[in-house]
């Protein structure tokens, strides 16, 4: 596999980053994941805009222009022959060759790393036909979840807790309300109305969330952005999650309680179809 590191395209085993890199030592890094369908990028613009916002919020320098980023994404997709899959991008604050809590000088070059993951079956996904089983866990993450940092230890532990419970993923709860999934935004549907938590510092501003809510409104579906409890979700007709890597994923069970018939619901199924169809059309 060919990867990208700070200006170079290299075989993955030759790619190297300093042990003093703050991404490694302090999780001082942000990332993006952009999906690829038909060899083209889905919503590159949305991801580039969010990346800029994450960097700005952390006073981190932009590693290169948006045009250069697009070029690197396309070059990696081309070199690795990706038809369906993902492009992972990470920017770290770099390093001045030592470990210190204080940020290095502002002109310290950031580290920019990108690689691809081939995922045949991303669109025609058997897991989406089955639907996901969810457990609920406490949300003990930091207070700036709107910044897409690489602090993924707790979400990673959440997936392990789900696995141990025989489920697929976890939704997190703070002050009695669902925040989001470990790597996705969370929704339920009751009497035809789609409910999801409003944007704030408490959740990641999903690129897929934005696209799906727009498509839902265009399809005359009712959308309510408000806080909700896990009990409301358990009593719902259906539920789903959204993310760049899984698109719209139906949820069929929460904490052992089957939703509706216990199979993917019509709203989630329809939104998945529309989202994939529209994304293919708009891909670049
Ligand atoms: N919330 C969290 C915590 C996530 O990690 C992700 C995916 N990175 C999302 C939501 C979904 O965001 P997007 O649609 O931009 O992939």
UniProtKB/TrEMBL annotation:
Q: Which domain of life is it from?
A: Bacteria
Q: Which Pfam family is an annotated match for this chain, by its short name?
A: Aminotran_4
GO-annotated molecular function: branched-chain-amino-acid transaminase activity
InterPro entries xref list = Aminotrans_IV, Aminotrans_IV_CS, Aminotransferase-like, BCAT-like_C, BCAT-like_N, Class-IV_PLP-Dep_Aminotrnsfr
Q: Which reaction does it catalyse?
A: L-leucine + 2-oxoglutarate = 4-methyl-2-oxopentanoate + L-glutamate; L-isoleucine + 2-oxoglutarate = (S)-3-methyl-2-oxopentanoate + L-glutamate; L-valine + 2-oxoglutarate = 3-methyl-2-oxobutanoate + L-glutamate
Which Gene3D superfamilies does this chain map to? 3.30.470.10, D-amino Acid Aminotransferase, subunit A, domain 2 (3.20.10.10)
What are its GO biological-process terms? Answer: amino acid biosynthetic process; branched-chain amino acid biosynthetic process
Cellular component (GO) terms are: cytosol
Please provide the record's keywords in A-Z order: Amino-acid biosynthesis, Branched-chain amino acid biosynthesis, Pyridoxal phosphate
Q: In which pathway does it act?
A: Amino-acid biosynthesis; L-isoleucine biosynthesis; L-isoleucine from 2-oxobutanoate: step 4/4; Amino-acid biosynthesis; L-valine biosynthesis; L-valine from pyruvate: step 4/4; Amino-acid biosynthesis; L-leucine biosynthesis; L-leucine from 3-methyl-2-oxobutanoate: step 4/4
The prosthetic group or cofactor this protein requires is: pyridoxal 5'-phosphate
User: So what does this one do?
Assistant: Acts on leucine, isoleucine and valine.
Q: Could you tell me what this protein is called?
A: Probable branched-chain-amino-acid aminotransferase
Q: Which organism is it from?
A: Cribrihabitans marinus
Q: What is the lineage of its organism?
A: Bacteria, Pseudomonadati, Pseudomonadota, Alphaproteobacteria, Rhodobacterales
């Amino acid at each position: 596999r060919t990867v990208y590191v700070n200006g170079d395209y290299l075989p993955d085993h030759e790619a190297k980053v300093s042990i003093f890199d703050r991404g490694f030592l302090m999780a001082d890094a942000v990332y993006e994941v952009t999906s690829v369908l038909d060899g083209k990028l889905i919503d590159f613009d949305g991801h580039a805009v969010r990346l800029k916002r994450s960097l700005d919020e952390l006073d981190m320098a932009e590693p290169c222009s948006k045009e250069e980023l697009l070029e690197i994404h396309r070059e990696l997709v081309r070199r690795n022959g990706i038809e369906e899959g993902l492009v992972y991008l990470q920017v770290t604050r770099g390093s001045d060759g030592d470990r210190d809590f204080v940020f290095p000088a502002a002109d310290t070059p950031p580290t920019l790393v990108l690689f691809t993951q081939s995922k045949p079956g991303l669109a025609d996904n058997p897991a989406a036909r089955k639907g996901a089983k969810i457990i609920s866990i406490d949300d003990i993450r930091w207070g700036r979840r709107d910044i897409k940092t690489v602090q993924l230890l707790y979400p990673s532990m959440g997936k392990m807790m789900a696995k141990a419970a025989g489920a697929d993923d976890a939704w997190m709860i703070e002050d009695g309300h669902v925040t989001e999934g470990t790597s996705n935004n969370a929704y339920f549907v009751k009497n035809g109305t789609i409910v999801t938590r409003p944007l704030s510092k408490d959740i990641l501003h999903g690129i897929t969330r934005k696209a799906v809510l727009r498509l839902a409104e265009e399809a005359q579906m009712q959308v309510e952005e408000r806080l909700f409890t896990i009990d409301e979700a358990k009593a719902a007709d259906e539920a789903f999650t959204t993310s760049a890597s899984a698109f719209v994923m139906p949820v069929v069970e929460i904490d052992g309680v089957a939703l509706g018939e216990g199979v993917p619901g019509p709203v989630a199924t329809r939104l998945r179809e529309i989202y994939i169809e529209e994304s293919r059309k708009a891909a670049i």
